[in-house]
Amino acid sequence: xxxxxQYISFRLGTKVLKFNKKIFKYSLILxxxxxxxxxxxxxxxxxxxLTNL
Length: 53
Hints:
The protein is built from one helix and two strands. By secondary structure, the protein is of the alpha+beta class.
């Protein structure tokens, strides 16, 4: 098996965008997971129990 990096390319007009296949795969999984879990995320700051005293 060769150590040559594999790329995924997209054509955008006259430009060709090349992405490393492994990095593209894991970033796509992360982005999809964030969009699926976004409604369940809690963005409120936690309050410390001593602030209520």
